[in-house]
């Protein structure tokens, strides 16, 4: 018998989504209640092997976290990397409008957590402190990329944002 | 031009015979109005004075008859006024609407849709009252005043002169007030128009409001605007009622003089009582026509202000004729020549400058360049959607600015980046251009048939979407018995061939399995109500159903489950920003969150058993409407699912015993009327979140449709899919595909595509490019292209920068020259 006094022991989809989100650095600076709302707004989708999750050149409006399986990253037909279980891609799509720089394709049967900008961004905008937290994570990532580029001996003429 | 017409010009146009009839009725009415006044005098002086009962009765009956006749005539006059007013209003609106549609595109950049709606619907509505009464009201009332005045002079010239002394005062004072009232009215009209425009803008851009959560900002803006409108209305009403006050005062000043002077004369024997009664009655009868004239004057002034304001707002001459006069529509080959074409804005900015371009018939040209380089402007100039201030733009030697709208429409098909989708069906949108050609009587034009529509749908990659829409249609055996038979046949085939492949992807209707994608109520009933008005969402109100739950001991369990769902869901809904997405997957609708919040608070101090009845009902409803597959906040325990499956069996037995025919249970050989065609074939529904499986299911379904010979029937149903307001039920890609198909169905000699495939997936983009390659040589194509990886097959690439053409030539040549195109491709 269901009782409001006894807590549930089985995990619902929201709690499963929350577990995934908490592992993502992008969401580290967000308060717990907002993480719960965002977990509620995420959607799960299962992709067959070879199916496209995100297409190069198409408007990027969703971030993807892999729950099980793996995705390959392709650009102009060339495989550049993989997004494995526990990893995510496309976090910047939550904040801004641009065309995807790569294609994400399921390598095997893959279950993903999809975070749509249209659902999540209004929640961030309504909580400026959370948005600031996410932006700090983005800044951290950009600094990290610039650092890597410098370590590699970057191009002499650098355009765009960054520490240089 | 309709905007140059005066308001009075509408009064007689097509209304002459009705207005003439009104004049006749008015003359008759005036005569009949005088008769009762004379009768009053005779009743007093002759019948009552001489004590003649028979004469009294006769005069009274004649009086009643005259009053009835006058009233009947007035009733007919009023009806005629209303008829004239409304029919003229209808003509006025049609003329103005036709004029508005013909206005240059630049005009629509300066006006909001809401302003147009307000002008056409609200502002012109009150003008109809004036038009209807423009002849009858002044005529009847002036004639009545003259007749009454004449009668008053007949009775006593001195008293008559005294009673008329008030009117000149009124004639001086009231118009002054009216003038101020008119100014206030004009201001009100302007404020009203501005607020309508603002509302239209916000609604059109509501996605921006939601995206930036700008609810507080927009509400504050609207508050300021409504305050302005309130003040304007208050000011106008102050003047309006001030005028009424003045009229009323003067109206009562007259009788005051008459009682004083006339009464004194009667006391001194200079005037008989009967004549005084008749005089007072005649004078009081003057007030009504006088008031009607004053009201008419106000109405006239108000209507003039509104009419002038409305016409002034649209007093712009169309740039082009709509249809050719004295010749047929041009048929071009598609030779486009631009020489020195420049478009300079009123501020002096040159959006395109000195453009020279020659596109031969059948050539495919891609226009590329950075944002703001003038590509879209050039495309719009050729399509006559923007003017050009210098140079020549010609199609087959004909200057674009001299062509009529129909010439351009029949020869140029323009697809913008953000096409407009009309409310209505997919078919309505696809055939919009074709139906327009038919409506314009274009010779030789044939409306596309289903085969042609299907061909074009495949060319733009919309065929599967339309098939999907058709699959989502809900039909009944009564409406389409043959199709239902074929659907049941397909169901059997699908089960035989594919059931095992999709056990994880489709939720089949199985009496022994819990439906995760059905509500608890639907799971218990496992059938449909024959009366389609009965809804599962209201199951908690169904006394017998609730009694059944109580009998099998399930009611309390479900209330308890409702508690769990409420406690898990309410905090999320209260914390989150209130967006539509927040409620899309919520078991609690937006308008009821606070109710459930109160229940959750109640549970802090009470046990479930002590809950108020209203709270229990809310919780029961929440539980009965809970859908495990959609509502994420709680996971249903397996033992509850088992319990509900038992309830399903018990329900069926109970229902069978009661002998009612209100339900139809799900049976493998019966069509489920509440479900779509697709779900009937599957005898279940695809589980969401499995796009790969959905593609495979769709492939099998298409195969079955072809085998059973019903593919076209499903396409026909799909074409009737209602796309919602401005295509809200369509994705961006679907909207672009419809816009492309719309133009391809018209098949004009020239296609102009302005980033028309930007929202399409790569496969659909490739389809469209293949179609364009296939029509090369038969149709001229000018395509503004953003994605440079799709231009290599064009005959020529034209590169624009800062409004000018900087490079032009085949792709390979330009790339080899390592110029601007090469740089653009490298940066992409």
Written account of the structure:
By secondary structure, chain A is of the alpha+beta class. Chain A contains 4 helices and 10 strands, in the order ααββββββββββαα. In chain A, strands 1-10-4-7 form a 4-stranded antiparallel sheet. In chain A, a hairpin with a 2-residue loop joins strand 5 and strand 6 (78-83). The longest helix of chain A is centred in the last third of the chain and has 25 residues, at 128-152. The radius of gyration of chain A is 18 Å and the shape is globular. Chain B has 828 residues and is an alpha/beta fold. Chain B has 33 helices and 14 strands. A 6-stranded mixed sheet of chain B has the order 6-11-12-3-13-14, sandwiched between helices. In chain B, strands 2-1-4-5 form a 4-stranded antiparallel sheet, covered by helices on one side. In chain B, strand 13 (796-801) and strand 14 form a beta hairpin. The longest helix of chain B is centred in the first third of the chain and has 53 residues, at 215-267. The two termini of chain B are 51 Å apart. The mean pLDDT of chain B is 89. Chain A binds chain B through residues 1-4, 8, 10-14, 17, 33-34, 36-37, 40-41, 43-48, 51, 55-59, 106, 116, 118-119, 121-123, 125-127, and chain B through 210-213, 557, 560-561, 563-564, 567-568, 571-572, 575-577, 579, 581-582, 585, 603, 608, 632-635, 637, 640, 689-693, 695-696, 759, 761-762, 787, 789.
């Amino acid at each position: 018998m269901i009782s409001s006094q006894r807590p549930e022991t089985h995990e619902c989809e929201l709690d499963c989504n929350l577990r995934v989100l908490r592992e993502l650095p992008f969401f580290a600076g967000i308060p717990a209640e907002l993480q719960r709302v965002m977990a509620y707004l995420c959607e799960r989708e299962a992709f067959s092997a070879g199916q496209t999750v995100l297409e190069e050149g198409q408007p990027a409006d969703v971030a993807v976290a892999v729950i099980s399986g793996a995705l390959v990253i392709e650009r102009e037909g060339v495989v550049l990397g993989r997004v494995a279980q526990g990893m995510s891609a496309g976090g910047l799509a939550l904040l801004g409008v641009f065309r995807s720089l790569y294609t994400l394709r399921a390598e095997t049967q893959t279950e993903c957590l999809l975070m749509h900008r249209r659902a999540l961004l209004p929640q961030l905008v309504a909580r400026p402190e959370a948005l600031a937290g996410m932006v700090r994570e983005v800044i951290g990532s950009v600094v990290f990329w610039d650092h890597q580029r410098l370590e590699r001996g970057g191009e002499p003429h650098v355009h765009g944002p960054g520490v240089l | 031009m309709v905007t140059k017409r005066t308001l009075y010009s509408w009064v007689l146009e097509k209304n002459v015979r009705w207005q003439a009839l009104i004049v006749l009725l008015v003359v008759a009415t005036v005569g009949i109005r005088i008769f009762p006044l004379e009768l009053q005098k005779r009743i007093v002086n002759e019948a009552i004075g001489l004590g003649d009962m028979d004469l009294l009765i006769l005069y009274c009956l004649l009086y009643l008859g005259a009053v009835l006749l006058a009233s009947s005539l007035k009733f007919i006059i009023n009806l005629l006024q209303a008829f004239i007013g409304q029919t003229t209003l209808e003509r006025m609106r049609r003329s103005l609407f036709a004029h508005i549609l013909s206005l240059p595109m630049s005009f629509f950049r300066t006006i909001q849709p809401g302003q147009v709606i307000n002008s056409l619907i609200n502002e012109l509505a009150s003008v109809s009252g004036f038009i209807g009464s423009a002849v009858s009201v002044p005529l009847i009332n002036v004639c009545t005043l003259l007749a009454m005045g004449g009668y008053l002079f007949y009775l006593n010239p001195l008293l008559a002169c005294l009673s008329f002394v008030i009117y000149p005062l009124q004639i001086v004072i009231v118009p002054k007030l009216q003038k101020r009232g008119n100014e206030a009215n004009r201001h009100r009209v302007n404020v009203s128009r501005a607020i309508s425009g603002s509302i239209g803008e916000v609604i059109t851009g509501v996605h921006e409001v939601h995206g930036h959560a700008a609810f507080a900002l927009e509400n504050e803006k609207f508050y300021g605007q409504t305050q302005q409108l309130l003040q304007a209305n208050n000011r106008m009403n102050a003047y309006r009622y001030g005028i009424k006050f003045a009229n009323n005062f003067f109206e009562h000043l007259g009788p005051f003089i008459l009682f004083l002077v006339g009464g004194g004369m009667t006391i001194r024997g200079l005037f008989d009582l009967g004549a005084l009664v008749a005089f007072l009655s005649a004078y009081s009868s003057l007030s009504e026509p006088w008031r009607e004239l004053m009201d008419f004057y106000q109405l006239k002034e108000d209507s003039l202000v509104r009419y002038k304001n409305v016409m002034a707002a649209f007093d712009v001459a169309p740039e082009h004729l709509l249809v050719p006069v004295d010749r047929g529509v041009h048929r071009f080959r598609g030779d486009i020549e631009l020489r020195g074409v420049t478009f300079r804005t009123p501020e002096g900015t040159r959006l395109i400058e000195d453009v020279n371009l020659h596109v031969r018939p059948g050539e495919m040209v891609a226009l590329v360049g950075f944002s703001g380089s003038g590509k879209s402007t050039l495309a719009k100039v050729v399509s006559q959607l923007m003017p050009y201030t210098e140079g020549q733009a010609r199609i087959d030697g004909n200057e674009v600015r001299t062509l009529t709208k129909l010439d351009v429409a029949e020869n140029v098909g323009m697809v913008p980046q953000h096409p407009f989708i009309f409310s209505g069906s997919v078919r309505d949108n696809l055939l919009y251009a074709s139906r327009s050609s038919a409506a314009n009587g274009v010779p030789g034009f044939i409306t596309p048939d289903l085969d042609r529509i299907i061909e074009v749908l495949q060319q733009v990659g919309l065929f599967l979407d339309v098939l999907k829409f058709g699959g989502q249609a809900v039909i009944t055996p009564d409406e389409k018995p043959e199709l239902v038979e074929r659907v049941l046949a397909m169901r059997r085939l699908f089960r035989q061939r594919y059931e095992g492949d999709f056990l994880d992807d489709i939720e089949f209707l199985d009496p022994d399995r819990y439906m995760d994608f059905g509500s608890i109520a639907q799971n218990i009933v496992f059938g449909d109500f024959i009366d389609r008005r009965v809804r599962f969402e209201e199951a908690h109100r169904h006394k017998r159903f609730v009694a059944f739950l109580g009998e099998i001991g399930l009611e309390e369990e479900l209330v308890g489950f409702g508690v769990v769902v409420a406690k898990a869901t309410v905090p999320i809904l209260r914390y989150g920003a209130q967006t539509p997405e927040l409620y899309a997957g919520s078991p609690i609708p937006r308008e009821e969150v606070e109710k459930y919040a109160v229940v959750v608070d109640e549970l802090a101090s009470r046990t479930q058993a002590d809950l108020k009845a209203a709270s229990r009902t809310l919780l029961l409803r929440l539980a009965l409407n809970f859908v495990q597959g959609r509502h994420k906040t709680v996971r249903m325990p397996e033992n509850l699912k088992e319990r509900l499956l038992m309830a399903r069996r018990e329900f069926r037995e109970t229902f069978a015993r009661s002998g009612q025919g209100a339900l139809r249970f799900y049976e493998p050989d019966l069509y489920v009327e509440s479900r779509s065609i697709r779900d009937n074939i599957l005898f279940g529904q695809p589980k969401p979140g499995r796009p790969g499986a959905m593609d495979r299911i769709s492939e099998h379904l298409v195969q079955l449709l072809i085998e059973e010979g019903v593919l076209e029937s499903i396409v026909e149903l799909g074409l009737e899919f209602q796309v919602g307001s401005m295509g809200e039920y369509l994705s961006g890609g679907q909207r672009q595909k419809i816009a492309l198909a719309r133009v391809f169905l018209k098949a004009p000699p020239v296609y102009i595509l302005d980033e028309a495939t930007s929202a399409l997936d790569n496969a659909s983009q490739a389809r469209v490019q293949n179609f364009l390659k296939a029509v090369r040589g038969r149709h001229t194509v000018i395509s503004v292209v953003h994605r440079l990886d799709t231009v290599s097959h064009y005959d020529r690439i034209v590169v624009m920068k800062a409004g000018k053409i900087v490079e032009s030539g085949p792709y390979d040549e330009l790339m080899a020259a390592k110029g601007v195109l090469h740089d653009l491709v490298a940066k992409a």
